[in-house]
Amino acid sequence: MIGRRRAHRSAIAVLGLVLGYLPVADAGAAPSGTAHVVPAEDTALALLLLAARGSSEPVLLFDPSDRGGFDRFRSEWRGATRCIHRAGTSAGIAALLREVTGGACVVVDDLVVLARALWPDATSAIVTTEANYKWMLRSAALAGATGSALLPLGEAGGRDDLTMIGGWRLGAIYVTRPALEWAEAARAVASAVVELPSADAFTTTYLRALKSRPTAVVITNPLDRRSLFSPSSLSLLAPLVSAVHRAPLFLVEDAPPENIEQATLAFIERHALSPSHVILVGDELALRSHRVADPVLAAGGPEARGGGTDVRVELFSDIDRDEPQALAVGRIVGEGAGQASATLARQYHLPRGAPARPVLFFTNADGIFPLGETISRTTAAELRNVGVAVKGYYGEKISHALIQRSLTATDVLVWEGHARDLTLEEQGGIAAKGAPALVVLQGCYTFDRSDPFILMDKGTIAIVGTSTAIYSAPGSALARAFFDALLYENADLGTATRNARNFLLALTHLQRARKHADWRKTYRAALAFALWGDPTLRPGLGTVEPKLAPMTWARDENGLTLAIPARGLERVVVGPYVAEPPPRSMLSGLLLREAGTERRRVKELFFTAQQVDDDLRAVCAPRPGWDVVSLFAPRTRTLFVLARPDWKVMEQPGPGGTFTFPLAREAGDCPPLLPEPTT
Amino acid sequence: MRDRASTLRTAAALTAVVGLGTGLGLPATARARVQPRRWEVTVAVRVEGETKKPVTVRLALPLPESVREVSDLEIAPRGLSPEVVGGGEAPHVTFSGSVRKPRRIAVAYVVETTRPSRPFPQILPVADPAPEIVPYLAPARLFQSRSILVREFLETHVGPKVTAGGANLFQAILEATRQELAWRGDGRSLALDVIRRRQGKRIGIERAFVTFLRCARIPARFVEGVNLASATRRKRVFWTEVWADGAWWPVSASRGWVGNLPPSYVGLARDGDRVVVVDGPAAAAYVVTAHPVREETGDGT
User: Fold this and answer.
1) Is B147 part of the contact surface with chain A (CB cutoff 8 Å)?
2) Domain extent at residue A613
3) How far apart are the C-alpha atoms of B143 and B149, rounded to whole Å?
């Protein structure tokens, strides 16, 4: 073994030429923007490539049983493609790799040799053992984020592996726990050797090496490769996600969701982190979501359509404890590492300009949700108000053929109404040729169907969906709040989802306070929505200055000042429902009967999420006629405020005006409101 | 009452078509009960329409199976134009014309079940399926095999038995389906609803079973048929077919039998196809009547 490894030393330059990874080997260098294809089953080789190249170039993990995403990416990729595998790769996989990449593959036999070719200019390296998957993940995360070379020692490696890096001017070598016995050998080839005997020591070193304050934490379960039916192996991609976001990687094991959250929050505390985002890399089997009893059913209400008796609630939601969600959360999901690697490659490396194609709304295809359609039409109007082109289809205009055509005709698709299969043919088979980057599936149990995974195969990067049955009013209200954050706050997907869910939670509190019997339906929707995709992603909708002035919130020394424009968006009438909200106002199932008619006006509400740096955590009503709900998330110091005006009490004919809401430490500290003086 | 003048006799041709099967087999185990193997069947369809606009009613004939022979086909079209489509995987009769007032059309045939020649094989996942099998591994609207719910069910209830106990995958899925999904007459009928609720009608349990098998890469298809021995009006019954050794094999998770398709069961439609399909401004409802032609005695007692 030793002799063979030494013999390889002389082959490094040749290998470099073949791979094109050495700078001296321009003749054989991979052109800039080469996609690298690696067998998904070879975790060590895959991690090496992901750490070395994944941030700058596509690295696709090839799984012959999970090829949809791979094939789609290949059809879109305009650069070169190279495959690489080890000598021990099965002949069948090797042949398939050659076939799908259209050329000969580079065959490697020694990962340390390969590492030297991949990181020719590295000034530091991290040593671990190939057999220890957890430490491979951690090491790959550090290598990817800092440019350190990843040196995975094989079974018989060690001193001899390390002697091979002699002459490679490394200033520092990090030696991980499974490789500690080779620390002495490392000292022979580097001026500084840092031993990392524990996960905490690793994270401390990682954070020091980053030289920047991380804003996200990446969580994965390294045991996700063991499952029989869902060997998603998504953990393989966690180091890449960690590197791209320069975010620490935290490994959890199969555990109840409460334990995952507790362990993660303890990790955050131990390392004095203050993330705004949590990126889960794993499906709901590897990183289990909460199961909460359906609040409607539990209170004696009707069973949810579709038979669900509980709601799957995303990790770190807080909403299941009736608290506002503090962190923006998203889940990198795929049926396997191959599909997810293609999704990430698409997100990181395929060009995505501001979408020139209209955002598509498919709303109320069954024609039975006039209230939801009313709200949805105002959401479309909100997009138009900031210059975003929209095509909206409603009711019976939505056909299977139209859906099929539309999947390749937009970058953002919004579905509102009873869930339908967007991607499946009537009698089975997949109809979709492509799919939009962002899909909002506002309907019942949309995450339970096959659609999300097929959409990802076809090009979708992020999906907002649900885990239970949703009533149309809170569902459409959430979609409206979600787009409000994207359009007016330039929020990322995770923050927009968080704010929209917190709007529904605040609405739940408002409904309870106003004795609305249906508040649990709103609460169920707040629990059920989640984001599958990178929570830091900004879809870039290409907004311009609003045509109609939106409502605004401003913080000053007196509190929060709300300015409501008198002019509303274009009037929408669907069935008995009518809405004409001022831009940026929220809507819901709160209705006002218009005197003398059967019309019901959808009541406008005003919502904001504010960062607060002091102890003022509650918002008070500015004057009689306002109902105010304030929810404070201490972890991110975010104050969510929902305000409902009663214009009659204020003796106003309708929306409009400027109102200053005083701030207080607690709601109980708010000054008593005196009746308006009458003249 | 039948319109004998317009009855078409196409028994020979139809028998030739529907008799071409794919080697469906029953186990050698004999059934203890007396099981009639030859039945005279009538499917009567009441069609109601109110306009002159053309209507087409498509009525399924027995699916082709090697153990089943269909003969003596008679058609009572009652003024509509009948056409027998005997070829392919889904033989049927279409009735075309206008239906301005309700009428009762009918198809009658004799069906006879023979004994299978091959034992039920071992059912295994298919790594490299032939193109014609791929659709039976794919998700469909009724079989959401790429759903996270489906994988969660299998991971929770089947995975441990297979990995720790070394159980056969197909058997483990069958057992888990029978143990975890309870039958209820007023239960759910869509697979995901049944999985969520952990109970369903037989049709729902069978759909869930097909979905599980497809997720586990075992080709599976859903069969709707009639139980000729049933006393109900439509005699609907459902089972699953799984692919192994180049043939489809019957199994029922909702009733618990493997391989021994009862001789009174006749398949009419697969994978969500309907027994009666109406194209045009009319509605249709069907009734099945069946009588054993000759009683046979079981050979296992």
Assistant:
1) yes
2) 552-669
3) 12
Q: Which residue of chain B has the CA closest to A421?
A: B141
Alpha-carbon distance values, A413 to A344, A359, A364, A450, B68 (Å): 19, 6, 14, 17, 49
Residues of A in contact with B144 (CB under 8 A): 448-450
Residue A155, phi then psi, degrees to nearest 5: -55, -45
pLDDT tens readout for residues B67-116: 889 999 999 999 999 999 987 889 999 999 998 889 999 999 999 988 87
Test the B interface: residue of A63, A90, A228 with most B CBs within 10 Å? A228
CB atoms within 10 A of CB A500: 29
Give the type of residue at B258: V
| Domain end marker among A532, A560, A581 | A532
Q: Kindly state whether A90 is in contact with chain B, defined as any CB-CB distance less than 8 angstroms.
A: no
The answer to whether residues A394 and A363 touch, using CB atoms and an 8 Å cutoff, is yes
B166: containing domain: 134-270
Structure tokens at A100: 């799908």
Q: Are residues A498 and A569 in the same domain?
A: no
Supply the ipTM of this predicted assembly: 0.85
In this prediction, residue A3 carries a pLDDT of 36
Q: What pLDDT shows up at residue B3?
A: 39
- Residue B116: the pLDDT is 77
Please give, rounded to a whole number of angstroms, the shortest distance from the CA of B187 to a CA of chain A. 9
Residues 6+ apart with CB under 8 A from A563: A551, A552, A554, A657, A658
* Contact criterion met (CB < 8 Å) for A427 and B149: no
Among B141, B148, B271, the residue with its CB nearest the CB of A448 is B148
**Are the C-beta atoms of B203 and B185 separated by less than 8 Å?**
no
pLDDT at residue A255, rounded to an integer? 83
Helices and strands per DSSP (H, E), number in chain A: 20, 32
Cβ–Cβ < 8 Å for A392, A377: yes
Residue whose C-alpha is closest to residue A129's, from A95, A153, A160, A101: A153
Interface check A445 vs B, CB under 8 A: yes
Count of domains observed in chain B: 2
**Torsion angle defined by CA atoms of residues A58, A60, A66 and A67, in that order, rounded to the nearest 10 degrees:** 70
Q: Chain A contacts of B193, Cβ < 8 Å?
A: 306-307
Among residues A211, A231, A257, the one where a domain terminates is A211
Supply the pLDDT for residue A24: 25
Could you count the other beta carbons within 10 Å of the beta carbon of residue A157?
A: 23
pLDDT score for A189: 83
Q: Which residues of chain B have pLDDT under 70?
A: 1-34, 294-301
CB-based contact (8 Å) between B194 and chain A? Answer: yes
In a domain, A91, yes or no: no
Query: How many residues does this entry show for chain A?
Result: 679
Work out the angle at residue B185's Cα, subtended by the Cα atoms of residues B180 and B191, and round it to the nearest 5 degrees: 50
- For A312, nearest residue in chain B (alpha carbons): B149
Judge whether B210 lies within some domain. yes
In chain A, what residues touch B194 (CB-CB under 8 Å)? 307
pTM of the model: 0.89
Question: Shortest CB distance from A421 goes to which of B141, B151, B190?
Answer: B141
Q: Do A427 and B152 touch (CB under 8 A)?
A: no
Q: Give me A495's structure tokens.
A: 């923050």
**CB atoms inside a 10 Å sphere around CB A523:** 27
Give every residue of chain A whose pLDDT is below 70, as ranges: 1-32, 156-166, 230-231, 353-355, 426-428, 674-679
